[in-house]
Amino acid sequence: MAAVLLAGCGFVGSEDDGDSDIPSATPAAVADIDCAKKGKVPGSGSTAQQNAMKYWIGQYQRACPGVRIAYNPVGSGAGVAQFLRAATAFGGSDSPLKPEDVELSSENACPGGRAIDLPMLGGPIAIGYNLRGVDNLVLDAPTLARIFDARITTWNDPAIRRLNPDAELPDTRIRPVHRSDDSGTTQNFQSYLSGAAPEVWQYPAEKAWQGRLGESADGSSGVASVVDSNDGAIGYFELSFSVALKIDTVSIDTGAAEPVAPSPATASAGIAAAEIAGDGKDLRLNFDYATRDEGAYPIVLITYEIVCDKGNRSATLPALKSFLTYTASEEGQKSLAEIHYAPLPDSVAADVRQVVRTLS
C-alpha cells in the first residue's frame, strides 16, 4: 500500500443529500493515508453516523481514488442483519452486538472467526422539540420518561412548569415521536430512560421502541423532519440533525448544579468514563447514563463498526482495513466535533487501530 497525501477543497459523499452541515476539507488539511490500490467496500447501518460517513468517505476517496466505499444508512438493526447475511463488509450500529448475533456471525459472515464491535465515534442524542414561543427548555429523566410514555400529554403540565418556572408554556398537546425502525439510537435513549428513571421507565432497552402510543418515523432524519414540521412535537435524534434543521434542543437536569445542553464537548464528558467491556478483540464500551458529573451530557451513544476478526473476504479486506484505519486515526477523528459528534478518547482510538491491523 502506498502513502498518499490527503488534500482537498470540497466534500464528496457516497449519497450526498445536500446537507450543508458537513465541513469541507481545506487546502491545509493534509494527512497520510495508507491507501489500498483498489476495492469496493459496502457497508450499511446506523443513521446516527451517516453524516460522519459522508465526511470520511469524501476525504478517503479523494486520497484513494482506486477504492469505492458505499454506506447505506438503513438503521442499526437492518445494518447488522445485512452484515450477518454477508451482504456487506461492515455494519454500523449504535449498540454492541448481542451474544446470539456473535454466534450467528460465525456461521455465515465470518467463516473461521466472529463478529466484533469497533467503536468509531460518539455523540449526544439530542431531544429536539418544536414549541412556539419556547426556545429554552429543561427536562429531567422522569419527566422525559412520562412524556415519551404518554403519561404527560400537554406542555403546561406541572412537572414541566416546575423545571421551567420562567417559561410561558402553552397548553399545546405534546406529540412524542419515536423511530419506527429498529435503531441503536432508540436502544441508547431507552437505556438512558431506564438507567436514569427506572421507577418510571420499566421497559427493556431494545432497538425497537417499547413505549406507549406516540408517532413514529423512519430513521433519525424522519423523526427530525416530523418534529420540525409540527408544533408541540418532541423527538430524539443525533445532534447533527437538530443543527441542520435548526431544531431547539432540551437541556437535561441531571442533578448537577446546572442543566446540561447537548454538544460534542458535553457528550465527550459523558463518554470519558466509558470502559471497554468486550473480550479479546471486541471493544464494546459500557458507560453511565445516570451520571451527575458537572457538564456531562447523559444521553450519549457510541457508534460501532461491526466487522469480522477473521474470515473477511479477501476482495474487500485491504480496502476495509485502510478505510477503518483512517476513520480511527487522529486525522479522521479531529473533524468530528465540527459535524457535532464526539471523537473517541485517544486511548480507545489507539485500541481500535491496533485491532484493525490484525483483521484477516
UniProtKB/TrEMBL annotation:
Q: What is this protein called?
A: Phosphate-binding protein
UniProt binding sites for phosphate: 46-48, 76, 94, 183-185
Q: Which CDD domains match?
A: PBP2_PstS
Q: Which GO terms describe its molecular function?
A: phosphate ion binding
InterPro entries per UniProt: ABC_phos-bd_PstS (IPR005673), PBP_domain (IPR024370), Phosphate-bind_PstS (IPR050962)
Keyword Metal-binding listed: no
**TM segments?**
none
Q: Name one GO cellular component term.
A: ATP-binding cassette (ABC) transporter complex
Q: Where is the PBP domain?
A: 39-331
Q: Which PANTHER family match?
A: PHOSPHATE-BINDING PROTEIN PSTS (PTHR42996:SF1)
Q: Which family does it belong to?
A: Belongs to the PstS family.
Which SUPFAM superfamilies does this entry report, sorted A to Z?
Answer: Periplasmic binding protein-like II
The protein's superkingdom reads Bacteria
Q: What biological process terms from GO does the record include?
A: phosphate ion transmembrane transport
Q: Which UniProt keywords apply?
A: Phosphate transport, Transport
